[in-house]
Amino acid sequence: MGSLTLRDHAERILLATVDDMQSVQTNTERSARSRSHGSETSTTDTTKISSLDEASEAHAIDRLGSGFDLLEVVSEYRALRASVLRLWRDSEPDADERDVEDVTRFNESLDQSIAKTVSSYTKRVDQSRDMFLAILGHDLRNPLNSIAMSASLIPRIGHPEPEAVSFATQICSNAVQMGRMIGDLLDYTRTRLGAGMPVEPAPMDLKPLCRGLFDEFRTAHPKCTFRFFSEGDGTGDWDADRVRQAISNLLGNAVQHGDASAPIELRLTGVDNEVSVAIHNGGSPIPPGELAKIFDPLVRGSSGDHPVKNRPGSIGLGLYIAREVAKSHGGSIEVVSTRDAGTNFTIRLPRQSSVSHGQPILDTTKIQTM
């Protein structure tokens, strides 16, 4: 870029900065603004801050489109700050008791602009990445289905060799795991892009669903001890497939991270207008530093003491998806983990779900406006 192009947004940003500096700001407003990194504004300076935010956002989007990385964008602000202060100093102004206040307000406004620029830049990068993952996952389904279908037909053609049947069976098994991972990936991008977890609630009973999962896991993991408890009414309006997915993810998490010598308990409790499902396992507790972000994608096991251990057919999104399933039904999920009591995940679901459907993740209008 030439020097004029590099300075394309400088005038707009500086004029918005001047307007912001000239606005009245109380000590309370300054304190609130410093704590929130400029994200909160008072009623007296909303317009000023808005113009500064708009200029900063436009600059971020333009620089992203021009291939600038985030460090380069922030470096521009460092150069802008240094240039303005140097020009002010070189003008040899007469000393004034308001100089310190003016420099402080200038730095505050520029910090506000940087915060907005970084936020807009990273948000746009995140949206682009998530959209790429959504399109990738969507487009991978067709060739994967073709592979699985072709493999399933091999044993039916003539009299294939036993070895060929074995290979075909392995391909089908791997295709199922890949399909599960692609499904998790699409669920992840759908929620990240604001479309929400798609659910279709219908009258159902959680007791037979939990009993079926209990039997399934007990058969699949014969070395583990499973216990099932049920109390109260388990009926309500939920999406059976999604709830099954969430509970299955939590049971799989218990198998993966729990102590094999300690029983895994699945407990269903129905009370008044709510039904809860709790999964308990023994073993090492979740580190306190990870407990607060346990439901964030790809977080647990990120430390050196707790390396990543994903289940077969999993990309580490199980707890995240379980949380989104609970939220999509108007419910919640919580976790308690101690060395003495073990780890306990609890999903709470209202009997009547209030579902709001978001925009489809591959909507053409949404893609064009990103």
Description:
- This protein folds into two domains: 1-195, no CATH class; 202-350, Histidine kinase-like ATPase, C-terminal domain (Heat Shock Protein 90), CATH 3.30.565.
- The protein is 56% helix and 12% strand.
- The protein has helices spanning 3-6, 10-22, 27-35, 46-65, 70-90, 99-153, 162-192, 206-220, 240-257, 288-291, 318-328, 364-368, and strands at residues 202-205, 226-231, 235-238, 264-271, 274-281, 332-338, 342-350.
- It has a five-stranded mixed sheet with strand order 2-4-5-7-6, covered by helices on one side. A two-stranded antiparallel ribbon has the order 1-3.
Show the helix and strand layout.
Layout lengths: L2 H4 L3 H13 L4 H9 L10 H20 L4 H21 L8 H55 L8 H31 L9 E4 H15 L5 E6 L3 E4 L1 H18 L6 E8 L2 E8 L6 H4 L26 H11 L3 E7 L3 E9 L13 H5 L2
Parallel strand pairs: 2-4
Antiparallel strand pairs: 1-3, 4-5, 5-7, 6-7
Helix pairs in contact: 2-4, 2-6, 4-6, 5-6, 6-7, 7-11, 8-9, 9-11
Describe the structure in brief.
With 370 residues, the chain is an alpha+beta fold. It folds into two domains: 195 residues, no CATH class; 149 residues, Heat Shock Protein 90 (2-Layer Sandwich).
Key attributes of the depicted protein:
Heat Shock Protein 90; five-stranded mixed beta sheet; phosphoprotein; transferase; two-stranded antiparallel sheet; 370 residues; HATPase_dom; histidine kinase
